[in-house]
Design brief:
The complex is a heterodimer of chains A (386) and B (371). Chain A has 386 residues and is an alpha/beta fold. Helix content of chain A is 19%, strand content 28%. Chain A starts with 5 loop residues before the first strand and ends with a strand. The chains are: A alpha/beta (386), B alpha/beta (371).
């Protein structure tokens, strides 16, 4: 095997329970986002733009859609002779096998894969987050600091800090305290779940962690605290940009709406940092003489004869005459019948909304979700399900 | 049809070209069409959707954009372990060889044909825009026992492009074929798509060249209508003959008819093209678009009416686009108006301009022009 300086391990086994029906049949990283992407496209594109050519994708929960989507990694330039993409589900060894018990255990079970590349550093990322980040800059920082692990952090609003892993740092960016979801946070620097480890150090801790019966085998809860307790060098790397955990219906909806700002913080149109994805190969979308589309994203293959305002339409969506789609996310191939009105909703892939159906309300606070391939027959009214 | 029984040939040698500035730096096969495609995508996708897994593109001149577009053939699923896509540029000892006809190049590249086990060849050009199932044609070819099957269309008089006229007798045999300026009265035109056995093609190549003839259609087919049984297969779907500016414009505008959009791009199979990783099109507050085709990567702040926007076009605030075709990465400046124009790739119209062509003769701006 050709030696690699750094390889990435991408955790993509998350069930995404809080996304409800949207993750009934697929893993959270495979959930659609932003009119044509799936959530995992953002981290994979980050790898591509950061010069990382070896990525292990750890899958577990409902991997069928995700596996097919990833293929051999060509859309992200990861179909390589040496390295490239490898999908790593749990497997059976000579002494039996187990599911991935936690994030750290998932890496532990694949130490053999990592060792094949004999890397100096290992990047641990998760396929659940929306952000654009150059991991190479973070690696330079890690090397300059001579750190054992570098954790990417960003400032969250104080009121949200108790939902995150919170870091306290000294003047030299060295982490002096780490608390997972603290009740009274001492800082508002949150972990983004992006780690660069020096591999020989991580290796020891993974083995130690596995031997401990009490451990939950998790990076945030076990590995990082153990390293901190041992006086290892933990450094923070500050990230200033858009970062969002789209783990709930509300945050997924919000993150889609964020793209509709006049100058969105997350720029999808930057030619130097394209977000790569599997392209569906549909014709350009058609807007009819009666259509009105404002403040929205519309993807290829859509056929629009109604009114679309502040919404994100994925590829192949059909909106019949007289429809009104407002502040909503409509996933690939959904068909919206004549006169249907949709407010503040997420309509799943391939859903079929009958004529004159009303979904959600313009002043409602809850987001209404229509599941994939669900059929809503004509003249019904559907409100938020919470 | 058994697997791998059909060999595809897309013949770009001496392709008729009156596309003026649109082919200034490219061959007709790679003229952008339909908001994200190139002309060649239609015949290539039709072949792939018909299960043809070995396709040769006989390139001739100005083929840099062709090589760039086709790449390894991956986007058409033609990068196989066996078979796949073969781009065959002319084999020429000196420049005068480039003037020789397609049969000469078929002869030069005869290895391509000989190395294949396929029994039949489907030979097409790139300027006949349609979505066709070649399997049906080959089945009909076998059933009829014809030597050659020529695919024809009845679209006839209404077509603004240039096409050969064909006369068929009641049994379906072609009894006359003339170049577009000929006086033959017929509502049938040739789609320049021919099906025959590979062995017959190779025989025609050798016998014609030996007689000093080097054009497939003009010499080998039109000259042998009495000796060979050439039958017509009438294709009923949408056809656009695109080899003049007027036909390019008219066929582009036809795409704004939803029935044409649904048929040409989806049935019997999808049309594939090189993908570009553009984000979805973005409509801003105050944007207006009516009866238009808009590709991914566009940013619309102004007004778009009866128009086609390729990928990555930016319509600034107050700009109004009517009856126009704006190719990839074009930019229309603040408050500018364009009507009946075709802007090639990366044309930049600065703020406050007013540019108009007319229906019969749209204004064309060449690639990267700044106005």
């Amino acid at each position: 095997m050709v030696r690699k300086e750094m390889i990435a391990m991408l955790l993509a086994g998350g069930e995404g329970k809080r996304l409800g029906v949207l993750t009934k049949d697929l893993a959270k990283p495979a959930v659609h986002f932003g009119g044509k992407y799936r959530i995992i496209d953002f981290t994979l594109s980050n790898c591509a733009h950061s010069g990382i050519d070896t990525v292990g994708v750890l899958t577990q929960y409902q991997p069928l859609v995700l596996n097919q989507y990833l293929g051999i990694g060509s859309p992200w330039g990861l179909d390589r002779r040496d390295g490239g993409m490898a999908v790593l589900p749990p497997y059976v060894k000579s002494k039996g096998g187990t599911w991935y018990k936690g994030t750290a255990n998932a890496i532990y079970q694949n130490m053999g894969f990592i060792d094949r590349y004999d890397p100096e550093y290992v990047l641990i990322i998760s396929g659940d987050h929306i952000y654009k980040m150059d991991y190479d800059l973070m690696l330079q920082h890690h090397k300059k600091q001579g750190a054992d692990v570098t954790i990417a952090v960003f400032e969250v609003p104080w009121k949200d800090a108790s939902r995150f892993g919170i870091m306290n740092v000294d003047d030299e960016d060295r982490i002096v305290q780490f608390e997972e979801k603290p009740q009274t946070p001492a800082s508002n620097l949150a972990s983004m779940g992006v780690y660069i480890f020096s591999w020989h150090v991580l290796q020891q801790y993974l083995i130690r962690d596995e031997a401990s019966k009490l451990s939950s085998n998790d990076f945030g809860k076990d590995i990082i605290p153990a390293m901190l307790a041992d006086g290892k060098k933990l450094c923070a790397y500050a990230f200033n940009g858009y970062w969002k955990d789209v783990g709930t219906i509300e945050s997924l909806w919000e993150a889609n709406m964020d793209l509709l700002e006049e100058h969105p913080q997350l720029d999808l149109y930057d030619r130097d940092w394209r977000i790569y994805s599997v392209n569906p190969n549909r014709p350009a979308h058609y807007v009819s003489g009666d259509a009105e589309v404002t403040a929205s994203l519309v993807s290829e293959g859509c056929f629009i004869e109604g009114i679309v305002d502040r919404s994100v339409l994925f590829y192949g969506v059909e909106a019949a005459p007289g429809t009104l789609i407002s502040e909503s996310v409509v996933m690939p191939g959904a068909k919206i019948g004549r006169g249907a009105q949709i407010f503040r909703a997420i309509v799943g892939e391939g859903a079929h909304i009958g004529d004159n159906v009303t979904i959600g309300s313009p002043d409602g606070s809850e987001i209404t979700v229509v599941a994939s391939d669900e059929y809503i027959s004509s003249n019904q009214t559907l409100m938020g399900v919470e | 049809m058994k697997r791998d029984q059909i060999l595809g040939v897309i013949n770009l040698i001496h392709e008729p070209d009156e596309l003026e500035a649109l082919t200034a730096g490219r061959c007709p096969a790679t003229v952008p069409f339909g908001a994200r495609y190139r002309l060649i995508d239609f015949t290539l996708s039709s072949m792939v959707n018909s299960g043809i897994s070995k396709v040769a593109v006989f390139a001739h001149t100005k083929y840099r954009s062709l090589m760039d577009h086709l790449g390894s053939g991956r986007h058409w699923d033609l990068h196989h372990r066996q078979n796949g896509l073969f781009v065959l540029p002319p084999i020429a000892d000196d420049m005068s060889d480039l003037r020789k006809g397609d049969l000469y190049q078929f002869f030069q590249h005869r290895d391509y044909f000989m190395r294949s086990q396929a029994e039949f060849v489907v030979i097409t050009r790139s300027h006949m825009i349609c979505n066709i199932d070649f399997n049906r044609v080959v089945r009909s070819h076998i059933a009829s026992g014809a030597d050659i099957t020529a695919i024809c269309s009845r679209a006839g008089e209404g077509l603004p492009g240039r096409a050969r006229k064909v006369k068929m007798d009641e049994s379906g045999r072609i009894i006359a074929m003339q170049d577009h300026y000929g006086r033959l009265k017929s509502d049938l035109i040739s789609m320049e798509m021919y099906v025959m056995k590979k062995e017959l093609l190779l025989e025609l190549v050798e016998t014609s060249l030996a007689e000093g003839q080097d054009h497939l259609v003009r010499h080998a087919i039109m000259g042998r209508l009495d000796k060979l049984e050439v039958r017509g297969y009438v294709y009923e779907g949408y056809l656009g003959v695109i080899n003049t500016v007027a036909s390019y414009y008219a066929n582009s505008m036809n795409l704004l008819d939803p029935a044409v959009w649904r048929e040409l791009f989806f049935t019997p199979g999808p049309i594939y093209t090189k993908v570009k990783d553009e984000p979805p099109a973005s409509y801003m507050e105050g944007a207006k678009s009516i009866n238009s085709l808009i590709a991914n990567g566009c940013v619309v702040e102004g007004t778009v009416i009866n128009s086609i926007l390729f990928r990555g076009v930016h319509v600034n605030k107050g700009a109004v686009i009517r009856n126009s075709i704006i190719m990839q990465n074009g930019e229309i400046g603040i408050g500018s108006a364009v009507d009946h124009v075709i802007l090639d790739k990366e044309v930049h119209i600065e703020a406050g301009r007013d540019i108009r062509g007319v229906h019969d003769s749209p204004f064309i701006a060449v690639k990267r022009k700044v106005i």
